[in-house]
Amino acid sequence: MNAPSVDWHARAAAIQIDGRAFIGGQRVAAVGGETFACVSPIDGRTLTQVARGQTADINAAVASSRKAFDDGRWAHKPPAVRKKILQRFAEKILAAKDELALLESLDMGKPVQYSLGVDVQAAARCIAWYAEAVDKIYDEIAPTARNALALITREPMGVIGAVVPWNYPMIMAAWKLGPALAAGNSVVLKPSEKSPLTALRLAELAIEAGLPEGVFNVVPGLGHEAGEALALHMDVDAIGFTGSTRVGRKMLGYAGRSNLKRVYNELGGKSAFIVFPDFDDIPRAAKTVAGSMFFNQGESCNAPSRVFVHDSIADEFVRVVAAETPKYAPGDPLSGTAQMGAIVDEVQLRTVLGYIAAGSEDGARVAAGGKQVRLDSGGHYVEPTVFDGVTNQMRIAREEIFGPVMSVIRFKTEEEAVAMANDSSYGLQASVWSHNINRAHRVARALRAGTVHVNQYDEDDITVPFGGFKQSGNGRDKSLHAFDKYTELKTTWLRID
């Protein structure tokens, strides 16, 4: 995934960025003319001014999407036609891969080789997969009596509001756009104010691919302004939200205060990574958890931040994990070789450092890292951090940090490990490491999580659903199950005389 032949710094110096909203097929300034600064966490420089969308802008975008849906310019197209346009959209994303990767890295701080090799590729693959799937989904005929014909059809909902986070802006947008657009809906996307740039560019690429104007609109802005206005809008039929559990609760409240729109929340996580003593390759488990925990600066909802290790192997495990951390020392995200980049902004930096301080204050031992680094860069960088001696009641084990901070918690019995793993308000992902197949199945079944990995972590595919139990949310992104969020089932009953 390295691209040492590309001078990303030169490209960054030359790039021209348009921060205006995208409504009705064109770039537009915010109705009130307000903007906010888009600041790069890499070096603190202002990249551009971005339209600060508010209620009037959301109203315009929703009206555009509603008109496009009602006149059928997209919803009435045959699935095979929608497929071709979305396939071209995916191709446009790949053709613009360097530009999109650079925007993603400048905007939120991740290493450019991962923006290029992971984020762009995954976004294009997601759009193409749903394009290919849409003309292969069949409706149903119910097994009624012979004097009736009951048709069960899946129909688009209408206008979908998509609100996505800052950690994987392209991928999260694609997870909403793919199934929503393929099913025939119109979409209003509100990207995070911390990373709005690739969403705006995606909208332009969609139009270039042949998506009718008005079907896909993007309104950047602050969460409590544009996001709240979108969630409260009476003409939005569903909200697909990915973000914090705190804001997810607000989304449910907004639905209750407005039109009882469907709300699908993909929320936080505090994923458990359990290593049993019968797993005899400690270095592989330790290297896997380090790679998964420190990828994307630890800014992943499914990061394996709670590592439960049997007491008999814990000392060796911590030693190996600590020895892995230098590989993830924060570097220049535009170097093409950095394995870890910058924390998204000053607020998140202070949050992460605050949790590191809390871990030490609560009695945990810093086995590696724990400091802010690259202070002369002007950006926001934190060392990969490993805590040992953590109890499951400490703040660093209970609350989602969204940074490169791992907590190692020791256990003595299988029952204790399962109980502690499940003793969390979250239930997004988990991992079990054991060569005992009975134990692996037994523990996997006992864990309350949307995905349980066995002897690996983060292996993934668009064909499997992603989502969680408990306060990690409801509904599922990815796979054919995502169509359930953006379609309604209609029964048409015909009497046969």
Quick synopsis:
The protein is an alpha/beta fold and 497 residues long. It has helices at residues 8-14, 55-70, 79-95, 97-108, 112-133, 169-182, 197-209, 223-232, 245-257, 282-294, 314-324, 346-361, 395-398, 414-422, 437-446, and strands at residues 21-23, 26-28, 35-39, 46-51, 140-141, 148-156, 159-163, 186-190, 216-218, 238-242, 262-266, 272-275, 306-310, 365-368, 372-373, 381-382, 385-388, 405-411, 426-427, 429-433, 451-454, 469-470, 487-495. The mean pLDDT is 97.
Annotation keywords:
seven-stranded mixed beta sheet, alpha/beta, 497 residues
What topology does this entry show?
Blueprint: H1 8-14, E1 21-23, E2 26-28, E3 35-39, E4 46-51, H2 55-70, H3 79-95, H4 97-108, H5 112-133, E5 140-141, E6 148-156, E7 159-163, H6 169-182, E8 186-190, H7 197-209, E9 216-218, H8 223-232, E10 238-242, H9 245-257, E11 262-266, E12 272-275, H10 282-294, E13 306-310, H11 314-324, H12 346-361, E14 365-368, E15 372-373, E16 381-382, E17 385-388, H13 395-398, E18 405-411, H14 414-422, E19 426-427, E20 429-433, H15 437-446, E21 451-454, E22 469-470, E23 487-495
Parallel strand pairs: 7-8, 7-10, 8-9, 10-11, 12-13, 12-20, 13-18, 17-18, 20-21
Antiparallel strand pairs: 1-2, 3-4, 5-6, 6-23, 14-17, 15-16, 19-22
Helix pairs in contact: 2-8, 3-5, 3-7, 4-5, 5-6, 10-11
